[in-house]
């Protein structure tokens, strides 16, 4: 068997759906319905470009200059986005995750973070990818604190929804009533603003055109089931995304700075427990006490 750069490839199938999850980072490398891609994918022998399908733990998005304070102690994370002087997308996306359970339609993978100078905490995480012939993909992430003291926690994921054609002619509908302004280093400035009357009001759905978006939304409208939903519709088909109440934030990115052959062909649709820079600002930051757990789910389907 080939020794792929992204490690073991876990293939799942259920009815018309097929998914591939990688050992590296427990990332979603492929998801298709009747052979049509629902997310932007990449080769098993290359690193995930532009965070394609990666889990973002123990923080999504950015930490301003990698600096934060927790329980009175200052911490400095490695600057994994040096061009903007930020720490970005957590610590587990390049780690090897171990299989816990595998069935034809399901895989469960686990990863343990031990203390480091920037994040001196113990964190255990486990993710389940499950396919259903009718409902598509469900991702459930469980974080647990096995350590002796409380820790700061946030999570997210970075799939890019696609309908197999450029975004410009696609209709995007998303449920955010508030958006978070950011500065030129992508760090929040001020409080979230009402989308009404702004270019970010996509609640009713509209053709995206050449609009560029890389912004976090909150105030998510939810159905009776507690789920918020996004839909990307092209000329032939639609791809939908949902997230549960464990993630009150949603980053939307129009893939303007990804590999040229994939540029603006997918919509980054990132469920997040907190906004960018939550570690430093404390906004919606989760305090995970010893022995405590936090669980969140989201999913992707055709139509």
Automatic annotation (TrEMBL):
It comes from the Bacteria. InterPro entries: Aldose_1/G6P_1-epimerase, Gal_mutarotase_sf_dom, GH-type_carb-bd, YihR-like. One of its GO terms (molecular function) is aldose 1-epimerase activity. GO terms for biological process: galactose catabolic process via UDP-galactose, Leloir pathway; glucose metabolic process. PANTHER family: ALDOSE-1-EPIMERASE, GALACTOSE MUTAROTASE. This is Aldose 1-epimerase.
